[in-house]
Every structure is written in structure tokens, then in C-alpha cells.
Design a protein that fits this description.
The chain has 240 residues and is α/β, with parallel strands linked by helices. The protein has 2 domains: 122 residues, Cobalt-precorrin-4 Transmethylase, domain 1 (3-Layer(aba) Sandwich), CATH 3.40.1010; 109 residues, Tetrapyrrole methylase, C-terminal domain (Methyltransferase, Cobalt-precorrin-4 Transmethylase, Domain 2). Helix content is 30%, strand content 20%. It has a 5-stranded parallel sheet, sandwiched between helices.
Length: 240
């Protein structure tokens, strides 16, 4: 009998934000898989460390920092083959995902490769936009306000239209596009609405509420985003 493949969200960084269901599945798992960097480090594993137990098989998956889709496809093909072997052997495999497994999550790519042949389940986790909103005590939406989430890798026209047409905007993967995004926020007169956050919920968390203090030409890390929304105290500025 084949094992079950679980994608579990461990949240943005604070270990106390792991759900009870995720904690239980991690503790009961036969195999625990997670992404690692070139130094063999895994943020997802470190978040869930308190729930790992001796005797579990660990399956680290090295993911190079590359925007080439072919690189990612090769990694996910190889990883899904290893996971499949464990599932066929009857082992349950839990894949640790930072944030939520189906929100910009690597689990989605593995799910696409395995779900037609194996039982797959996902457990939601707290995503970085919600963690950012909480860190700022800033509502993402109120009343009839519109809200969207986009990637900083979109072209300038796409980002500009989102900033002009939506009341609240989350810009994910903002680091490498930070100079461009700062310029577009100024162009659309959204600078005062914008907050910039890095490594939310972690020891090296950084929050910048005045983005004019950011370097106009410096890049940021992968785990960064802009949260663009009116202050809840500005009742006249929040659309009814």
C-alpha cells in the first residue's frame, strides 16, 4: 500500500505559528523532505525542528538560486522520483514548506508530478502577506476595498496597473526588483502607502515603513515583499 504525500505549511519563520495539524504530521512522518541551499541549510527545517524525531528519514532537496525554469524542472523531476520511491515503499512523506504550500510554494510543482498516481494532501500555513499584515498591525482590506497579490518579477506596466487599480497590493519576490518597484511606487503616488519587509517572523526580520529611506539602487533578499495599503486610521482614505 502506497504512502501519502503531504505538503505542510510551517509559516513564515516563527516556530510558534505552526498549526497543530502540521506539527502532528511532521512528528508522525516516516520521511521528511525540505529544500536546502548550497550550504545544506533549510529554513523550513529549522522552523519545524522541535517536531522532528529521531529515526525519521530526511530527504534534503538542493535548489539552486536560478530564474531559469529548466533548472527548477530538473530539481523537481529528481525530487519527485526520490519521493515516489518512498511512497511506493509505503512510507508517508511530509514536505516542509515555508509559508503556505500552495501559495508561491515548491510543493505545487511536486504535487503536479505526483498527484495522478498517489494520494496527496496539503495543510495550509500562515503566508508571508498575512504575517506582514500582522507585523504592521495593518489590515489588508476593509469595507469594499480591492486586494491583489503580484510578483515583483512582472513587467513595469503590469505592476503599475496593479498599483493604480487596487486599493491594497502585496508585491512578492521584491528583492531583486526593489529599485524598479520603488520607482513605480513613486510614479503611481503610492510611496506613502508602502511598507517593505524582509524575513518576516525571523530573527533578522526587517521592517521599513518609510521606503524613501531605502537605497534606490540596492537589491534585497529573496524573502522580501512590499505591502501597499492605507493606514486604518485614515478612514477617509479607505474606500467604503
Amino acid at each position: 500500500m502506497n504512502g501519502i504525500f503531504y505538503g505542510v505549511g510551517v509559516g513564515p519563520g516563527d516556530p510558534e505559528l505552526i498549526t497543530l495539524k502540521t506539527a502532528r504530521l511532521v512528528e508522525q512522518a516516516d520521511v521528511v523532505a525540505f529544500l536546502v541551499n548550497g550550504r545544506g541549510e533549510s529554513q523550513a527545517k529549522s522552523i519545524a525542528a522541535a517536531h522532528l524525531r529521531s529515526g525519521q528519514t530526511e530527504l534534503p532537496i538542493y535548489m539552486p538560486m536560478s530564474e531559469d525554469p529548466a533548472v527548477g524542472d530538473k530539481v523537481y523531476d529528481e525530487a519527485s522520483t526520490k519521493i515516489e520511491a518512498s511512497l511506493v515503499a509505503g512510507s508517508n512523506v511530509v514536505f516542509l514548506c515555508e509559508g503556505d504550500p500552495l501559495f508561491f510554494g515548491s510543493f505545487a510543482y511536486l504535487l503536479a508530478r505526483l498527484q495522478t498516481r498517489f494520494q496527496c494532501e496539503s495543510v495550509p500555513g500562515i503566508s508571508s502577506p498575512h504575517a506582514a499584515s500582522s507585523a504592521l498591525n495593518l489590515p489588508l482590506t476593509m469595507m469594499k476595498e480591492s486586494f491583489t497579490v503580484i510578483s515583483g518579477r512582472h513587467n513595469d506596466v503590469f505592476v503599475e496597473q496593479a498599483l493604480l487599480n487596487f486599493d491594497s497590493v502585496i508585491i512578492m519576490k521584491a528583492g531583486r526588483s526593489r529599485p524598479k518597484l520603488i520607482e513605480l511606487l513613486s510614479k503611481t503616488c503610492r510611496t506613502n502607502d508602502a511598507n517593505y519587509l524582509e524575513y518576516i517572523g525571523r530573527e533578522n526580520e526587517r521592517i521599513v515603513s518609510d521606503i524613501t529611506t531605502l537605497s534606490a539602487d540596492e537589491l534585497g533578499p529573496y524573502f522580501s515583499l512590499f505591502l501597499v495599503a492605507k493606514s486604518p486610521g485614515d478612514l477617509n482614505g479607505r474606500r467604503a
